[in-house]
Amino acid sequence: MALLRVSSPHLTRPGNTGGVMMLVILATLPGLAMLTWFFGWGNLINVAWAGLVAIVCESLVLLLRKRPLAFYLTDYSALLTAVLLGISLPPLAPWWLTLVATAFAIIVAKHLYGGMGQNPFNPAMIGYALVLIAFPVEMTSWLAPQSLAMTESQTPGFMETLTTIFPFIGGESFDAVTMATPLDAFKHKGGLTAEEFWSTELAVSSQSWRAWQMASLGFLLGGVYLIYRKIFTWHIPVSMLAAMAAISVIFWATDPSSYASPELHLLGGATMLGAFFIATDPVTAATSLKGKLYYGAGIGILVYLIRNWGNYPDAVAFAVLLMNFVAPLIDHYTQPRTYGHKSTK
């Protein structure tokens, strides 16, 4: 009887790239639901619009490269990039801002390097960083939680939000209540102490702070589910959050009147989204287990440093892109020992 000679690996599991990407998209739903509940329909509309732009751009590039559309579109990688961008952008971001960010992420950050699996930098963060640098005014106007609206007319419904994002559709305009994010407000608190900031700043009032907490916890819940499903390991998100918490505790304990508390850093921005859905990108992150710990810790420390002494109050995108640079070097020096051989020097 002839034996079938097949090379390793011999262990398999159900699922493919498309299934994994779709599971990650579904895991963002708790956080997206919280954003929609507290901040209105804006992010949901952004996700839908970015998804359409991503699919169109992906299809056009695939046609130019003479690649099969169905095979590559069903891996849902472009759709995941669009979802992450739609969540990251402000709820009332104009349509052209989402168009520029998404098109640049798909065409330049992804396909210019050869497509999925070849890009050295996270495409969603490349698109986000581009519009953050090029259009800072539009990127720093965040919609206030609906509970802070002064009147009913300042609480935009679905159609009002849609016509604000796409003004050429036509419709009645409205005066929405906008404010800075908690991290942006703390960075520009001026001469206020941290205690005065928490007692007087509207961005961290009980209603506003609860909205940001619930959104962050929604992404935390989705991320824990992905770890449970073994989509990625715990190393990157845990090391990132632990490093950020540790360095923020050190500075906060040293001078609590000048530095933000660890709670603000962990729950007041895109930290949870970045830790579980952006930093864990398997293409651009470190791959060895020890390397993942260094990689995640580097992101957490860079986020804190940029938030405190840089020009950008959140900095998750820039920290991830900087560590994308370092990931190949980390992998080179953290290669695991080959079975049967001594560890490398």
Brief summary of the model shown:
The chain is mostly helical.
Describe the structure.
By secondary structure, the chain is mainly alpha-helical. Helices cover 61% and strands 1% of the residues. The chain has a two-stranded antiparallel sheet with strand order 1-2. The protein is globular and about 60 Å long. The mean pLDDT is 87.
Question: For the terminal residues, how far apart are their CA atoms?
Answer: 46 Å
- H/I helix tally: 17
Please report which band the strand proportion falls in: under 5%, 5-15%, 15-25%, 25-35%, 35-45% or over 45%: under 5%
Tell me how many strands there are.
2
Which terms would index this structure?
61% helix, globular, 345 residues, mainly alpha, two-stranded antiparallel sheet
